[in-house]
Amino acid sequence: MVQNDPRTRFQHPGQAVSVYPPLTSAGSLAALDIETGRPKWVFAAEYERKFEAKNLHGLPSAAQTIPDAWDVFTSSPAVVDGVVYVGCRDAHVYAVDAATGRRRWDYPTSKSWAIGTPAVRDGVVYVGTSDSSRFMALDAKTGRLRFNFKAGAYVFSSAALAVDLAYFGSHNGRLYAVDAKTGALAWEFQTEASKSDPMKVLNADGTLNEAIFAPVFGDFQDMYVAFYRFVSIGAIVSSPAVDRGTVYVGSMDGNLYALR
Asked: Where are the alpha helices (DSSP H) in the chain?
């Protein structure tokens, strides 16, 4: 319910409700009381700080040690059966008790960001990673790995689950459909931009050509250069949606695709 009154409250009949909002650069997941907006609990990331350095990303001052600005939560939380599941840029997927904010388990993602919102179904948590280019299925109760699919490039896309398949995109311009139980590839779609690959961003197997990502400026500007390269191959960063047997997904090539 949206009103013009700044005192607007959210109401949920019949039970007390908490809100788990999009997260801030403070690196903390918070549960807010839906009536008052006050924090009920706060869960802080551990901060690996693997990029802590002086003059990090070219930021001033050159003499000051700056912690990695990216060890934060950008994944939106998923709440299922009293547990909050969320990925973090500190290279972990977390399961947190929804009532208390206490950690139930965390899964380390090989120093890779977990950007997408976890998808949860039938006791399994599905989430992708960045640098390690994986799509994983984790046991919802224990956090143990059930399967690991190598996507070839970063997976920022949140998975869509439909029938027996999980659908997700990758920075290599491909949409993958994998078996939700085994992780076996059912089929994949590749954008035309990815096939032509004008800037030679990809290797023949769809993995990233690391040589082309060598620093140009030696500072934060290199991230913008990399972004342009991903645009050139139609990277699929968006999260797919599935309706009546059709998969809909957007690409950095400017197209919205409907796939059967």
From this structure: 192-196, 221-232
